[in-house]
Write a structure and sequence with these properties.
- By secondary structure, this protein is of the alpha/beta class.
- Helix content is about 35%, strand content about 30%.
- Strands 3-2-1-4-5-9-8 form a 7-stranded mixed sheet, with helices on both faces. A two-stranded antiparallel ribbon has the order 6-7.
- It is globular, with a radius of gyration of 16 Å.
- The model has no long low-confidence stretch (mean pLDDT about 90).
Length: about 200
Amino acid sequence: MDSIDYYNRYAVPYYEETVDVDMTEVIEPFMELLPENAEVLDLGCGSGRDTITLEERGFYVTAMDGSEEMCKLAEVNIDQEVLQMTYEEMDFDDVFDGIWACASLVHLTDEDMRDVMKKLILALKMDGILYFSVRKGDRDGIYNGRYFRDYSKKELNGLLEEFPELELLNVWTTQDARSGKADGQWLNVLAKKIEVER
């Protein structure tokens, strides 16, 4: 079962587990870097929890998720349409001032991660801000029906060095904010798209 099948099957419990989680600690630094009235992509929006936070700050949010069932739940929660689209289908060019990818890149293989990073860079406007988070650890395989790829800080820095178009602003570690998951740790990344001399 791939991750989209998983989230289609377990959409309701996943929604309930995540919809009320307080993400202030990581979403505030992201929002502070965005221009007024920014266009933001909530990539892998899940319950739509962070879409609501971003819109309350005055940003224009495109909520997107690959799981049809998650999209349905999120649409009810945020009272707007959610773009059902996989990363492979994504084809944005110079559209967003910010991309928020909270815990949404954790199921990507190394090759897929690099492909998606290229798409995210393309989707950002110049000086656009990218936030993403990955699990801190050493898993690389199938766990509980889904593929997970965790990272050490060194591995994450190595990945980011492959993309000179991204100026790294900050990498920091946080505890898992979900109830009962506090032993898990996340690596959070903020980066800015910059002009690169060819």
